[in-house]
Amino acid sequence: MVASVRVDPYRSFNFRVEISGTTTASFRECSGLSTDGDAVDYREGTDPNTMRKLPGLRKYANVVLKRGYTQNLELWGWYGNITNGIADRRTVSIILMNEEHEDVLRWELAFAWINKLEGASFNAAASEVAIETIEIVHEGLNLVLP
């Protein structure tokens, strides 16, 4: 009997974010890598008493990224472009790495821009890291191999 090769799933903590090909910062959390769509009901006059289901518009959830504050202001500069009316859309990549820090999967967000930037909550009685949150809007999500 031949022993099968064991393939363990990747762990979710080992990832990085690239914006327009440059790793901007380390993030502690990433959520919202999802897409869905609408089904369109369609029936021709000659069809029997059933509806056809056709694919409709695709929708992409906003991606939320959280990171500890640093003095790196690149994301604030990008957000500043958006608030000043500059159409600064970029490609954002979320890259999952294996235990050896090698790229194994890459999610590409097309025509992305920062829609929301949320500052940290401060509490003098706590000792947590100050966390900022950004919400990225995009027009396409693709999963590719690196």
Helix/strand layout:
Layout: E1 15-19, E2 22-23, E3 29-31, E4 35-42, E5 52-60, E6 63-68, H1 74-83, E7 90-97, E8 103-118, E9 131-137, E10 141-144
Antiparallel strand pairs: 1-2, 1-7, 3-6, 4-5, 6-9, 7-8, 8-9, 8-10
Description of the structure:
By secondary structure, this protein is mainly beta. The protein has one domain (15-144): Pnp Oxidase, Chain A (Roll). It is 7% helix and 47% strand. It has one helix and ten strands; from the N terminus they run ββββββαββββ. Strands 1, 2, 3, 6, 7, 8, 9 and 10 form an eight-stranded antiparallel sheet that branches. The protein has a two-stranded antiparallel ribbon with strand order 4-5. The longest helix is centred in the middle third of the chain and has 10 residues, at 74-83.
Summary keywords:
146 residues; eight-stranded antiparallel sheet; Pnp Oxidase, Chain A; extended; mainly beta; single chain; two-stranded antiparallel sheet; 47% strand
What count of helical segments does DSSP give? 1
- In CATH, the architecture is Roll
Query: What distance lies between the first and last C-alpha atoms, to the nearest angstrom?
Result: 35 Å
Shape: extended
Short description:
The chain has 146 residues and is mostly beta strands. Helix content is 7%, strand content 47%. The protein has one domain (15-144): Pnp Oxidase, Chain A (Roll).
